[in-house]
Amino acid sequence: MNSITNSNPIQMLNNLIEDTTSNIQKYCKNPGKDFIRNRKLPPQKLLKLILEMEGNSINAELFKSFPNIEERMSASAFVQQRNKLKPEVFHDMLLKLNKISNKKTFKGYQVVAIDGSSFCFPANPKSECFVKRHQTRKDGEDAKSYCLLHANIIYDVLNKQYIDCFAGPKHGIGGNERLWGEKLIDSHIRAKQIVAMDRGYISYNLIEHGNRSGGYYVLRSPIGRDNSIPEIGALPDEECDQWFDIPVTPYQRKKYLNAGYRSLQIVKKGYKSEDDLTEDGIKARKKRWDFEEACIVHFRAIKVKINEEGENKWEVIITNLPSDQFSANDIKDLYGRRWNIEISFRSLKYALGAIQFHSKQDDFVLQELYAHLVMYNIVAACGNEVELPNRITKHDYAIDFKMAVTIVRSFFKNKILSFQRLCSELSRYTQAIRPGRKDPRKIRLKSPVYFIYRVA
User: Fold this and answer.
1) Residue 149: enclosing H or E segment and its boundaries?
2) Which pLDDT does position 237 carry in this prediction?
3) Residue of 441, 223, 207 lying closest to 315 (CA atoms)
4) Is residue 213 within 8 Å of 190, Cβ to Cβ?
5) Distance (Å, whole) CA 343 – CA 5
6) What's the pLDDT score for residue 269?
7) Could you give the 3-state DSSP secondary structure of residue 10?
């Protein structure tokens, strides 16, 4: 028999929908005017409908959610109702659910990762996410333009839960991953938490944000020309573990330079505020300093060897984890777990359908993105509640996430409240865990899924 706990994530989501509905005026674009009349699609049904939507057309989604023709509304009525909602309604639901399951830890520490992912949707010249393409195709026609939204996300890699998300235009402030990495650290990293980030985030400013957060970080560092810390490039080609104290300042004043402080060469052109979305402003914020004019940046650098396809490669990981509690192998293991956020992006887009939006308006796309993040957490939490029996097999097994999405959506949509039955269904669909499998990353432009090419 499978071991099942008493927690029911679907019931928690239903309770949250009821609580949000009771405070719906907080999330209305026109408080006191919206949702004051009786409609076929009141707030509670509207929230539930957006959460359970898949990749079909709007009419197909309405047909599935409202099989009774007397209760079904038109696609136009649905759009008019959702237009009354701010996207923040689903963002707040995400924040309230982000601690639904945090049982798994690493040596008693919660392990999270910060990374960004882009979401493409059909072209809308009025959108802040609009990207005009100037290329010409082989047939002589102009290449199609598109819209690109970039989400900066913090994710619990052990419990498979999205914690928070900030989204914006890829070519605007949403594309400044380093800035949002600092903000996510300030907002969410506390004691007994470790955050892992890839090499694109490294900077003295972000390291200091991590040092002052009260928590810990594991940050991969470039070694070659892209490295901005000379001490990293000077490390010998052997495994080593060293602590550094680097005095830095954003100014070129003699009293600091003579004392051995390193000037950070902060670009001040265009650096007015975070709301300044000019190209110069974006470039300026990539080199920033948020602290006092003279500071000692303290961190630990670990150089490890990576065996890749018969070739030895070196990687450097920067952290502030104490040496007496976390060995170099522990740090290497922690950073390796960061890859789980990349796996979650794949599941979010292709299992939950976050590449098929039902509109090209910015607010509607944000609504659906946050709703998909909420549903991902619910699906993962349901899977976490099922403990598969120990079997003597070649590989370990885990719940098949794609089938879990289908099953959880079906139970949520049809109001089947037997969590015992849900867990029983989930346990029927498993897949083998095969560690060490590799597939070259295929970097190519992803086209949006246009409305006329939707699955029926």
Assistant:
1) strand 146-156
2) 83
3) 223
4) yes
5) 26
6) 45
7) helix
| φ, ψ at 167 (rounded to 5°) | -125, 145
Q: What is the mean pLDDT of each run of 10 residues along the chain (456 residues)?
A: 58 93 95 90 95 92 93 94 96 85 86 95 92 76 86 95 94 86 95 94 94 95 75 88 94 90 71 43 60 94 78 88 94 93 95 92 96 96 86 81 94 84 91 75 72 70
Name every residue whose Cβ is closer than 8 Å to that of residue 261 and which is 6 or more positions away in sequence: 247, 248, 249, 294
Q: Please give the structure tokens belonging to residue 180.
A: 């949002």
Select from 196, 176, 442 the least CA-distant residue to 317.
Answer: 196
Q: Which residues contact 322 (CB under 8 A, 6 or more apart)?
A: none
Q: Which phi and psi (to 5°) does residue 148 adopt? A: -135, 115
Instruction: Enumerate long-range contacts of 92-96, CB under 8 Å, 24 or more apart.
Output: 92/20, 92/27, 93/16, 93/17, 93/20, 93/370, 93/374, 94/162, 94/164, 94/165, 94/370, 94/373, 94/374, 94/377, 95/164, 96/16
Cβ atoms 173, 272 nearer than 8 A: no
Helix (H) or strand (E) holding 336: helix 328-336
DSSP states along 303-335: EEEEEETTEEEEEEEEE---TTT--HHHHHHHH
Is residue 75 within 8 Å of residue 49, measured between CB atoms? no
**Residues 400, 403: Cα–Cα separation, whole Å:** 6
